[in-house]
Amino acid sequence: MSFAGKKAGNGNKRRRNSSSSQSTGKTAEDTWADITMNPPPMPSSKSPKFIANQAEQTNPTDRMVSANEPTSSTNKKKNKKKAKRVKTSAETPTVMKDRERIEWEWEWDDVSVPTHISGADNELGGLVSFQEIDGVDCMWEEDQATGGRTLKFFSAGKQSNKKECKGVVQEKQKNKKKKKNNAKPIITSTLDDEEVDEEALLEAVDWDSFVAVDEFSEEKAAAGELVSIGSRMREMHQDEMGSEMGSGSENESLDDEEYETADDTMEMDVDISESKDEDSNSDSENEQDEDGHEDEKLDASLDVPDPDVDVSAWETYSIHPLLLRALKHLRFTSPTEIQSKTLYQSMNGRDIIGAAETGSGKTLAFGIPMLQHICNKDKDLWDGPTGLVLVPTRELAVQVKNHFMALTRFMHARIAVIVGGMSVAKQERLLNSNPDIIIATPGRFWEMVSTNDIYLGHLQSVKFLAVDEADRMLQPGNFRELSHIFKTINKAPLNKTMSRRQTFVFSATLLKDMQLKKRHLSEKAKKRMKDRPEPGSMEDLIGRVGFHDKTPHFVDITSIDATAKTLTEARIDCVADEKDFYLYYFLVRYPGRTLVFVNSIDMIRRMLPIMRLLNISVFGLHAQMEQRQRLKNVDKFRDTPNSVLVASDVAARGLDIPQVEYVIHYQVPRSGDLYVHRSGRTARAMQEGLAIMMVSPEERKLYYKMCDKLGKEIAPFPVDLDLVGRLNPRVKLAREINALEHKLNKNTHERNWFKKHAEEMDIELDSDFLPSSDDERGSEIKHSEKVDKMQIKSAKARLSKLMAQKILGRGISSRYLSSGVIGDLAERLSDKSRFNEVIPTLPKQSALEAVKKNKKSH
Ligand SMILES: Nc1ncnc2c1ncn2[C@@H]1O[C@H](COP(=O)(O)OP(=O)(O)OP(=O)(O)O)[C@@H](O)[C@H]1O
C-alpha cells in the first residue's frame, strides 16, 4: 500500500490513501511525497488513514507539527508517555490493536521528499506528522542529486524500533527561500545509540525556532508572529539529559510531563493532580516499608530541603512534620500575617472568617489545617473527601490546587479539580477516585453532585469547607448553587470520627464590603439587616454557610484602602488615543513582567497585534477565550521574562503569578474593588510591586469616585515626554499596519461568510455581495487588496527599520561613538546588562526605583 500526498492546505487533510490516487514516482508536477509501506492485509475499514484518524480523535493533544519536533530521544519519551496515555484514555480495544499493528507489524520503507519540489517545503508539516504514529521517525538529509534536502522516514519495524533513531528532526519555518536553495541537514542521524553525542546534539538544535504547536500556522510563521518557546524547551531537554545521566527512568515521567506543559498546559494543570497523585500514590505504595514509614524513602526520590532554611517559626502551630518539610522546601520561613493570625485557632478546630489583602497567603491559611488532618488520619480508610474548597473561577481552582500540591510534596493526598469547561466524564472519574480534597467552582460541582446520590453522600461527609474569594461568590452565577451546596452539606449527620465540620470563609474585601454597606444604610435598615440579611449579600452567605462555632474567629487585616502594604501606586494622565504611546514607552523603558488590564475584550483584540508588531512578548486573556488557551497563556506569561499579559477582569481576582512586577490599568477600573483586585496581582507574598493607572480626561470622574471610595489620591508617575515622542513613530506605524491588516481580513472574512452561507442555502448571490474576479467590481476589489497588501509590506519594512534603530537622547549620534556628549556610548550600546536595550543612553532601572526617586526629589 502506498500513500501519495498532493499539494493541499492543511497538514492533516494532506494524507491520501493511495487506493484513490496512485503514487507516480517523484515528479515535481504531481507528487511531492511518496511513502511506501508493506502492511499485512487488512480490511478496508482499517486503512492506515482510518487508524490514524482514530488515534487522533482519541487523543487530539498528541497532534504535533513535527517540523518543531525536538530530538528523537525526546520523541522516545513522548512515545512512552503517549503509550501511557493511550492506556488510560477511553480507547477501544480495536483501536489499540490497530495501533499496535501499525507499530509492530508493518514494515516501513524509507522515503525521500526532495525539498526543491515546489510546495514540498510548505507541506512538510503534514508529512512529518506521520510521526504521530508511534515508532515512525523522520529526519532531514542532504540530497546530493537535487542539492536540496530530503526528509527521510525511518522504518519502525519491531527490530529497528529497539534501536530508536537518535537523529534530530527540526525545521525552522522562517527563511523558507534560503532553506530551499542551500539548506543543510542540521544533524545527520545514526541508528546506533552509542555513536550519538547528546551534548553536541543539544548544542546543534536551534531551539529558538521551536514554537507552541497549536499556535503554528504558515501565515503566522511568515509574519514572524510565532512566539518561540525555545528557551523553555532547551531547559527541559537539558534537565531531561541530566536526569537520564542521573537517576534514569525514575525522573522520566516527570520530565515528560514537564515537557508537555509547553504544548498542553491546560491538560497538565488539571490532569496532573490526577496523574501525579496516581504516580505519587503508586510511588509511595512501593516505597512504604512495612511500618508504613514512607518519608525516609521519599528522600531518595525527592530533593532534600535546604538544611539552612529555618522554619522554626511554624513550630508553635504543631504542624505535621511532612507539612513542615514542604514549607521548608518552599522556603516559606514564617507564616504571613493572615496565616499567623488564624492558624492557631484553625488548628484547634475553630471556624474562621478572614479578610486580608490579595496575595497575603490566604490559601495556606485554610490549606494547612485540611492537609494536617489528612496527615494524621488512617491512610487506608477513605471515609469521604476531607476538604471541599469552593472558588469563584476555574483559574483560581487550578491555582489553589497548585498551592495544595506544593504543600503535599512529601505526603500523599488526592486532589480533584471540578470546574466548568472540562470534560464531565473525566471529572466523574476524579470524583470516583476517592479524592481527599475537592477544589471546585459551585456551578459545575453542584451540577455533578445534585444528580448523583453517591456524590451527595460524599458531600455530606466533608470535614472542612472553605469558601475562597467569598465576595466574588455573591455574583448571581455562583450564589444559587453555593446556597444549594451549603444546604446539602448542612443536612448531613456529621461523620462519627469528627465531632463537627470546620468552615473557613476568606476574602480580600469581605469585611470592608460589609462595613461600607452598613455605613450607607439608614439606622432602620441596619436594624433590619441584623435580623434578616439582604438576600445575596455577604451577610447572607455567612448566614447560610453553616458555621458550627457560634462566634467564628474573625480576622480582618485589610488596610483602609485594602491594597497590600508593599504596593506602590502611581498614575499617568493622558488622552485616550495616546495611551498606546505611554504604554509602549513604559514597556520599553522599564521592561519587566507586566499585567495590563483593560475594560473590554475588543480592546485586548486591538492591542495584541499592535504590541506584537512592536516586538513585545505579549499574550491575551479574556473570558471568550477557550479555557485551554486561557491557562496556556497564563503559563506562557509566567514563563517568559519581561512578557506582557493583556487581560480583562477575568484575571483580576485570585490569579497568583509570581513576580508580576507591574500592573497597568490601561483603563480606569469600573469599581474600587476591581482596582484593589487588579492591583493585587503584583506586590504578592510580601514582595514589592507597582500599579499604574492611566487616566484620560473622560475617565477623571470615575477616577475621583474611586479615589473617594478608597480614601486616597494616587501620585503621578514620572514620564520622560521627550522619549515618549521619540518612540511614537513606531507605535503610529504599528497601528497603521494593524488597521490595514484588519481591513483586509475583514473584507476577506465577509466575502467568505457570504460565500459559505450562499452555498449552504444553495442560492446564487448577486455580484454586489460576491463579486467574481471576471466582473469589474471583482477586479476593483482585487486591485484594492493588492494595494493594501503592498502598503502593509512597505509599512512593515519601515517599521523594522525604525525598530532596528536605537533611541538616543537629543544631540546624540551613534555614528560618532566616542565624540558625543556620552563618552562611553560604545560601551553602553553593547552592555545590555547595565543599560536599556532600546535606549542605551539610560541605565537599566525599575519603574519602582523611578517612582521612589521622584518622590524623594519632591
Ligand atoms: N508563609 C509564606 N511565605 C512566603 N510565601 C507565601 C507564604 N504563604 C503563601 N505564600 C505565597 O504567597 C503567594 C500568595 O498566596 P495566596 O495566593 O494564597 O494569596 P491570597 O491571599 O489567596 O491572594 P488572592 O486573594 O489574590 O487569591 C503565593 O505565591 C504563595 O505561594
Question: Any chance you could write out the topology, listing elements then pairs?
Answer:
Elements: E1 2-5, E2 33-38, H1 48-58, H2 72-88, H3 93-105, E3 107-108, H4 120-128, E4 137-142, E5 149-154, H5 158-162, H6 176-182, H7 198-204, H8 218-222, H9 230-245, H10 249-261, H11 265-287, H12 294-301, H13 321-330, H14 337-347, E6 352-355, H15 362-376, E7 387-390, H16 394-407, E8 415-418, H17 424-432, E9 437-440, H18 442-449, H19 453-460, E10 464-467, H20 476-491, E11 502-507, H21 510-519, H22 523-531, H23 538-545, E12 553-556, E13 567-573, H24 579-589, E14 594-597, H25 601-613, E15 618-621, H26 627-639, E16 644-647, E17 662-665, H27 672-679, E18 689-695, H28 700-710, H29 721-761, H30 776-804, H31 825-830, H32 847-857
Parallel strand pairs: 6-11, 6-12, 7-9, 7-10, 8-9, 10-11, 13-18, 14-16, 14-17, 15-16, 17-18
Antiparallel strand pairs: 1-2, 2-3, 4-5
Helix pairs in contact: 1-3, 2-10, 9-10, 11-26, 14-15, 15-16, 18-20, 24-29, 25-29, 29-30
The structure holds adenosine-5'-triphosphate (ATP).
Adenosine-5'-triphosphate binds next to α15.
